[in-house]
């Protein structure tokens, strides 16, 4: 092989090695600090879920939930008041509104937000997912009152 060919192969190998290292660093960063969040534009500061996820009122589900009750897991029995003013986050991070320390919960696992007088749950690209009544949540989804939501090994319900 000529020296030029060997040099080009060495550069290609070095480029692949650096790409692999950057992929590992990005994966570690995402696991530790959560996925990168986009800052809202000044023109469109309120991002709303699509109309396909518009909440529907079910019979017997009148009113807005005011309390999150942990029904199973390490913090079973814990009741946390919900505030309509801000978002409620769940995860292993100390910055989360509800800190859940188990091996199946991501650092920034899920978010609860009030939209049109209905609490919605959104999975934040967690490793193990968020389950609403046994079904995996992929888009912001309304949470009916007294319906189990599972995050890692912890299950909670929203109640009035």
Order of SSEs, N→C?
A: HEEEEEEEEEEE
Beta-strand percentage range: 25-35%
Rg from Cα: 21 Å
Question: How far is the N terminus from the C terminus?
Answer: 76 Å
Spatial order of the strands in the main sheet? 2-1-11-10-7-8
Quick gist of this model?
This protein has 160 residues and is an alpha+beta fold. The chain has one helix at 3-33; strands at residues 67-72, 79-81, 88-91, 98-99, 110-115, 118-123, 130-132, 135-136, 141-142, 149-151, 154-159.
Commentary on this structure:
This protein has 160 residues and is α+β, with helices and mostly antiparallel strands. Helix content is 19%, strand content 27%. It is built from one helix and eleven strands, in the order αβββββββββββ. The chain has one helix spanning 3-33, and strands at residues 67-72, 79-81, 88-91, 98-99, 110-115, 118-123, 130-132, 135-136, 141-142, 149-151, 154-159. It has a six-stranded antiparallel beta sheet, with no helix packed on it. It has a five-stranded mixed beta sheet with strand order 4-3-5-6-9, with no helix packed on it. The longest helix has 31 residues, at 3-33. It starts with a helix and ends with a strand.
